[in-house]
Amino acid sequence: MAVTRERVLAYYAQGKEDTRLRGGRGRLEFWRTQDVLRRVLPAPPARVLDVGGGTGVHAEWLTADGYEVELLDPVPLHVELASRLPGVTAREGDARELPVEDGCADAVLLLGPLYHLGERADRVRALAEARRAVRPGGVVAAATINRYAAVHDTVLQGVYAEEPDRRAARTALETGVMLAPGHGFAAYFHDPGEVPGEFADAGFPEVERYGVEGAFWLYGDLGDWLDDAERRALLLDAQRAMESAPSLLGVSGHLLTVARRPA
């Protein structure tokens, strides 16, 4: 089996995405992504194209920060929910063929599409479309899931001993293709070393890479740290200090890669 559009759309039609980053352990991914973006995006007001923006979890705070946000997503349910957010414009769209004019945005976010496009050619095409849509000097930021995340996560969740989960995690480790048993999640998991090459083929010769969660997402007491404002600030600061260390990039669940369109 492969990462198909039909499988991806069926998974997200279940409506789970709206709450994934708003509570529990997912808050670490949310706050760290927010932390990095607030440092690399042009200052508001600026126009941000949020491609594959889901239900608007990031579009919501970007709008509150003063950005003009247009969200594009292939899942009708996501577009419906995102369109309810104050100030957010949302419509259906495919990362590989953006329905926008050249150079229309100051920044383009791809915080989901690259791990739901199973073919390298499609991922490069999505990055090239982001390059077309952003103005010269503008920012493109893309999230990927790391190749080792499935093995780490299944051990963390206590299901690595179950043969179907172990087989799926090991397949992702070996091939990049993750087809989770049970709930239908399908994605491509990158080796961190792959990502700069995909950016380069799309016209971005230089990139900056940020480990989103570091090793902290694997800590059993993560929730306690995130629930306490003072301890949370310390945790985020600790990961910020190590976020681009090459030897640690792969331990994060997610990697955020940032590039600027050449002038």
How many DSSP E strands?
A: 9
**Fraction of helical residues:** 25-40%
The rough form would be described as globular
How far from one another are the termini? 41 Å
Helices and strands, in order, run as: HHHEHEHEEHEHHEEHEHHE
Beta fraction of the residues? 15-25%
Radius of gyration, whole Å: 17 Å
Number of helical segments with 4 or more residues: 11
The stretches of 5 or more residues where confidence is low (pLDDT under 50) are: none
SSE-based structural type: alpha/beta
Q: Please give the largest β-sheet.
A: 9 strands, mixed
Integer average pLDDT? 95
Secondary structure topology:
Elements lengths: L4 H8 L4 H4 L5 H15 L6 E5 L5 H8 L3 E6 L2 H7 L5 E5 L12 E6 L9 H14 E13 L2 H8 L6 H13 L1 E3 L6 E5 L4 H7 L6 E4 L10 H6 L1 H14 L11 E7 L3
Parallel strand pairs: 1-2, 1-4, 2-3, 4-5, 5-7
Antiparallel strand pairs: 5-9, 6-7, 8-9
Helix pairs in contact: 7-8
Q: Can you give a write-up of this model?
A:
The chain is α/β, with parallel strands linked by helices and 263 residues long. It is 40% helix and 21% strand. The protein has helices at 5-12, 17-20, 26-40, 57-64, 76-82, 120-133, 149-156, 163-175, 195-201, 222-227, 229-242; strands at residues 47-51, 68-73, 88-92, 105-110, 134-146, 177-179, 186-190, 208-211, 254-260. Strands 1, 2, 3, 4, 5, 6, 7, 8 and 9 form a nine-stranded mixed β-sheet that branches. Helix 5 (76-82) links the parallel strand 2 and strand 3. Helix 7 (149-156) packs antiparallel against helix 8 (163-175). The radius of gyration is 17 Å and the shape is globular. The N and C termini lie far apart (41 Å).
